[in-house]
Amino acid sequence: MAARPNEARPPGPGSGPPDTQQGMRRRNLARVMHTVRAEGPLSRAAVAARIGLTRAAVSTLVDELIRAGLLEELGPDRPAGVGRPGSALALSDQGPAGIGAEIGVDHLAVCAVDLRGAVRARAVRHTANRGRPPGPVLAELTALFGQVVAEAEGRGLRPAGLAVAVPGLVARDARTVVRAPNLGWHDTDLAPFLPDGMPLTVDNEANFGALAELWLGDGTPLDFVHVSAEIGIGGAVVLEGRLLRGTRGFAGELGHVPVHPEGPRCACGGRGCLEQYAGEEAVLRAAGEPAPDENRVEVLAERAAHGDRDVRLALRDAGTALGIALTGAVNLLDPEAVVLGGALAALAPWLVPSLERELARRTAGPVCSVAVSRLGSEGPLLGAAHSVVRAVLDDPPVASGRA
Amino acid sequence: MAARPNEARPPGPGSGPPDTQQGMRRRNLARVMHTVRAEGPLSRAAVAARIGLTRAAVSTLVDELIRAGLLEELGPDRPAGVGRPGSALALSDQGPAGIGAEIGVDHLAVCAVDLRGAVRARAVRHTANRGRPPGPVLAELTALFGQVVAEAEGRGLRPAGLAVAVPGLVARDARTVVRAPNLGWHDTDLAPFLPDGMPLTVDNEANFGALAELWLGDGTPLDFVHVSAEIGIGGAVVLEGRLLRGTRGFAGELGHVPVHPEGPRCACGGRGCLEQYAGEEAVLRAAGEPAPDENRVEVLAERAAHGDRDVRLALRDAGTALGIALTGAVNLLDPEAVVLGGALAALAPWLVPSLERELARRTAGPVCSVAVSRLGSEGPLLGAAHSVVRAVLDDPPVASGRA
Fold first, then answer.
1. Using CA atoms, how far apart are residues A220 and B388, in angstroms rounded to an integer?
2. Most CB within 10 Å of its CB: which of A179, A192, B357, B399?
3. Domain ranges of chain B
4. d(Cα A114, Cα A389) in Å, to the nearest integer?
5. Would you say the ipTM is above 0.90?
């Protein structure tokens, strides 16, 4: 059991870079941006009151952010001279944009989101990516990227980075796909295939879906387990408002929690994993349905909605298995909620009753709530784009050598 | 699904108190303390180099810490005047002390630990606390506390706080025992029973055991699952060097992860929980042994060491069940290691082989390591005392109005 290099002891208030004037200034710039994002439009005085700095200090920070094109003043036209009136500040909708991309089994998608969180450009292409090598898939994605960037630039936006959601495990370098079984990719560094000269982050689609839920969801708590599905079961864990990554970057693999320890063999090497009971293929098999090549979730949702008894029973049993696996997760993590997102959101009406029954039956006392994502399968793409925007808000790109 | 009051959005670089000179000074004082703790004795120049501040800035901080009795200068006698030679700094062994206490089913214990981490006073009493009401148990604990404090004060130490480890779930207020089934306590606020006028923290024994492992263990990583046992199975999760608490403060309940979903009923309301296969009572039952009233783990370890075949088989099966539950935990958390601590450490020779076999069989790729705590059943008491010491290091009590 070896400690990680350069991290021999836990981080604490005593570790990390020293506090300097420069670091303090950067954190305060971020505070202004986040305050205006959360509560704007706001006057300088209101920002100062919210973050507990003097009005003069806030004005200096605000002026820097306006010069960098990150904040803007909304009317009324302010008179020249000192003593600005309470003119309202908002995040710029002409500033940096986050570019999000998604590689799905059935589609590719790219979008641009501005600092205010609005989607300003979007392109989707339906393609069958199962078993297709990375080169052509990423060439096609790069073409969509070019299209979206041109459109965003035409609207006065400057792309600040690219974040790509993939249906698989991604290493902690945030660029290497370790395993994406449904694409057939493994140990593939995506960076050489993607546009040069722009900060790049690759992450698991369930992780980006969970972040979208955290940032955009309606009343999503700070501690939750996010469950999604494409072919397998995806999962992600958010604790205290932060995505749990784990040592290798593989945390949140709810699909491989054992449900029946001597159940069927799973591709992961285990037996009786949740995916063997609640994954799309397992549900289709249980329902006696042939597995269509594409749009499996849509097919299942449609049949269930039309009252197909076998599909409904198969989904009920999948919900039971989800409830067993989530009982373990709830005991380990004590989250405030479980959120069903991604493609699972569409199946929620037939999964949730048995899932909730199982959770209630197995956990004493007040149990965490079960919610269904409003973002559904849009979550990963939006989460990717917003992750770039968040990075700008967290460390606003303001020239450091100002007068 | 409601957001928690006053915490509507996730914390980020833009939230929290504003950066001020005063806050910066406090964080830099903590940096000096932690640097000297981790690498001392160190000269002022070495501290400055380690934390990246100027020698002059560090000298000011060090002088404050010396005046407050938190740091001391070891020889050689430094000459009067400016230009101090490289005289070495160490944490004071006459300064604040952390008082740790443990309420066990079979015993009560209190100890005092100085800033350097040395145990300077200790008192233990063997008492049968099962089913005994809080009043008399805590009166007895308070008597031990008085004894240890008097001894510590006699050695020039000043108690800085009391932390109490209990075998049960503790609310996030860090004083109320929600459920301690083996004591028979529930919804009991311990504060009124304990000495007044001293900062108090009550926490689960597995949590304090995990913190002791993090702080005192030999090469313990920053991400691990800690498994312990008294009567039931205790668990605690440390991620990125921080203890996971969860929404209600109940995170880490590995003992109630379902292992066989239709297995025997558990007191928690579930079925087939890990505790039903690997808890002390389950192991004793499986071994066909009558359950002794006290010291059950010692009895099991002794019989296994003497080659008792039934006990060994029962422990092997318990290890298998631990491996199944930990497979779920490893998939969810992706920790670097599993650490067997507390009373389980004594049973490790008979649990670990089947536990490791099960983990390896069920998880693809490099699996996290399994380690046995050297602290064993001392962990919770030491973790409690050290948690008080850590709080002093994290925010050194230095008068803020210095000249």
1. 34
2. A179
3. 24-92, 97-210+382-393, 218-374
4. 7
5. no
Contact B346, B373 (CB under 8 A): no
Does B256 contact A at CB distance below 8 Å? yes
Q: Rounded CA gap, A316 and A400, in Å? A: 57
Per-residue pLDDT tens over the stretch A266-305: 888 889 999 999 988 889 899 887 777 677 788 889 999 9
Q: What is the pLDDT of residue B17?
A: 53
- From residue A373, give the alpha-carbon distance in Å to each of A213, A359, B198, B298: 7, 19, 46, 50
Angle in degrees, 0-180, between the axes of helices A21-39 and A379-394, rounded to the nearest 10? 140
* Structure-token match 């005593």, residue found: A14
Bigger pLDDT: A290 vs B286 = B286
Q: Does residue B41 contact residue B88 with C-beta atoms inside 8 Å?
A: yes
Q: Does A399 touch chain B (CB under 8 A)?
A: no
Of A246, A172, A238, the C-alpha closest to B224 is A246
User: Which tokens hold the place of A47?
Assistant: 């920002």
d(CA A329, CA A224): 10
Facing B335 at nearest CB: one of A242, A246, A364? A246
3-class state of residue A287 by DSSP: coil
d(CA A235, CA A223): 14
The span from the CA of B208 to the CA of A351, in Å, is 39
Both tokens of B197, joined, read 């006028």
Backbone angles phi and psi of A145, in degrees to 5 = -60, -45
Residue A68 has pLDDT above 70, yes or no: yes
Q: Say what the pLDDT of residue A216 is.
A: 93
The CATH class of B218-374 is alpha beta
Q: Where are the alpha helices (DSSP H) in A40-91?
A: 44-51, 55-67
A218-374: same fold as A23-75+88-92? no
Least confident of A151-160, A276-285, B46-55, B288-297: B288-297
Six-digit token pair at B349?
């020779």
pLDDT over 70, % of chain B: 90
Residue B256 CA to residue B239 CA, distance in Å, equals: 20
Cβ-defined contact of A17 to B53 (cutoff 8 Å):
no
Contact B18 A51 (CB under 8 A): yes
Query: pLDDT tens digits for A104-119?
Result: 988 999 999 999 999 9
Could you say which residues from 9 to 28 on chain A have a Cβ atom under 8 Å away from some Cβ of chain B? Answer: 9-15, 17-19, 24, 27-28
* A12 token code pair: 């604490």
Which secondary-structure segment (H or E) carries B214?
Answer: helix B205-216
- Contacts of residue A9 in chain B, CB cutoff 8 Å? 38, 241
| Prediction pTM value | 0.88
Residue A226 falls in which region: left (phi positive, over 0), alpha (psi -120 to 50) or beta = beta
Find the Cα–Cα–Cα–Cα dihedral A75, A76, A79, A85, rounded to 10°.
Answer: -100
What's the average model confidence in pLDDT over A349-378? 89
Q: Does B52 touch chain A (CB under 8 A)?
A: yes
Which CATH class, in words, describes the domain spanning A96-210+382-393? alpha beta
The secondary structure element, H or E, covering residue B310 is helix B309-333
Flag whether pLDDT at A377 surpasses 70. yes
Closest residue by Cα to residue B256 from B368, B165, B335, B181:
B181
According to DSSP, the β-strands at A337-340 and A369-372 are: parallel
CATH fold for domain A23-75+88-92: Arc Repressor Mutant, subunit A (1.10.10)
State the pLDDT at residue B231: 72
B240 and A11: CB-CB below 8 Å? Answer: yes
CATH topology of domain B24-92: Arc Repressor Mutant, subunit A (1.10.10)
Where residue A197 falls among pLDDT bands split at 50, 70, 90? confident
Which amino acid type is present at position B182? N
Pairing of strands A119-126, B119-126: unpaired
B247 and A324: CB-CB below 8 Å?
no
